[in-house]
Amino acid sequence: MDNFLQQLINGLTLGSIYGLIAIGYTMVYGIIGMINFAHGDVFMLSAFIALLIFLVLSQVVGVASLPVAFVIVLIGGMVLTSVWNWTIERIAYRPLRGSFRLAPLISAIGMSTFLSNFVQVVQGPRNKPVPPMFTNFINVGGASHQIVLQYRQIVIMVVTGILLVGFWWLVQKTALGRAQRACEQDSKMASLMGIDVDRTISITFVIGASLAAVAGTLYMMYYGVVNFADGFLPGVKAFTAAVLGGIGSLPGAVLGGLTIGLIEVFWAAYFSSDYKDVAAFSILAITLIFMPSGLLGRPEIEKV
Fold this sequence. Notes:
11 helices, globular, ABC transporter involved in vitamin B12 uptake, BtuC, mainly alpha
């Protein structure tokens, strides 16, 4: 039971990171019907941005308070990553929006390759170690029954919960959220009703990048190392989470992320870590066979 609870905490922590990345996939798809395959590399880029900001704060500026430094890193990473993704949307995606459907997909794959190689050239191919952050932990239980709850795991789950609640409020209760939902239903009709569709899409890319930046910062803090290739596998798993939960469904993206994280951790703990990725993708295939729209997805209705 102790091992089960320990792996449950680890799985929820990892799933929280996947869920934050998956929201970016599902938001863009929900509004413009495009799979942004560069989103995983935007997440990787945000981890490097967070590392650079943290090194400047700790070694150059001399910020001694870790919570203050973490908040600055989080906000700075969100701002800089959002600027990157806004630029990508303006340069690589917007000119192709009226083209045939494969054009934005090809552009996204090209942008993914560009970002990965750009970071490899600028930062080098080696792993970049991260200074320790939130290394303390809490032992829950007695001498014979102990569950280790790390401070960094608490930070990850608390930050993820706050952001998800705030984001749900943004989508459901604000004018921007209403504009996003209108563009999701019918972008042409939304433009006729006075909604600036291009602006709404750009803001959606910015929000998705902000959440990816938070995920990148938390990933950097949790694993203590970053690499230029870190965007591929987490990006694929986050996309898998978005599909598993129901592509286009925000709660589904979070549920899918938590599910993928739990499957990966429990499979590695009780079976073999060599096949944890196979197990996650197998569960996706089985789910889509019986639920083609995903766990919380809605069947797509063809407009005539």
